[in-house]
Amino acid sequence: MSHPRTSPALRNHTQIACDFMIRGVLHQGTVMNYSESGLFIKTKSPGAIGSTLSIRILDPIQSQPVTIIGEVARRQLPLSAADQGLKTGLGVRILRASTKIDALLSASEPTS
Known about the structure:
The structure is a single chain. The protein has two helices and six strands. The protein is mainly beta. The chain has one domain (13-107): predicted glycosyltransferase like domains (Thrombin, subunit H, Beta Barrel), CATH 2.40.10.220. It has a six-stranded antiparallel barrel. A hairpin with a 4-residue loop joins strand 4 and strand 5 (64-76). Mean pLDDT is 78; it is low at 1-6.
């Protein structure tokens, strides 16, 4: 089931590889866009709405992993996403980050 975004925040587009953990299981994805309050991770492993996740992104300046704690706010599952021309993945509300998310993600080089 796909859940629509509740607030149209200004989104910055990017493509940055990330790892994230939900309920002790490690998954991989790509951060596709972000704002002050959240981000969208393209992944085939969407968690349940309300699940807490730990996201790890490599800081390109310090070459250190940065951890972001978030909550699954919405998800786009494979069948409903394809029907609507959307990417499969998770909309994540940022709860806590070890650095300013905007500075980290804007400094990262997009992946190909």
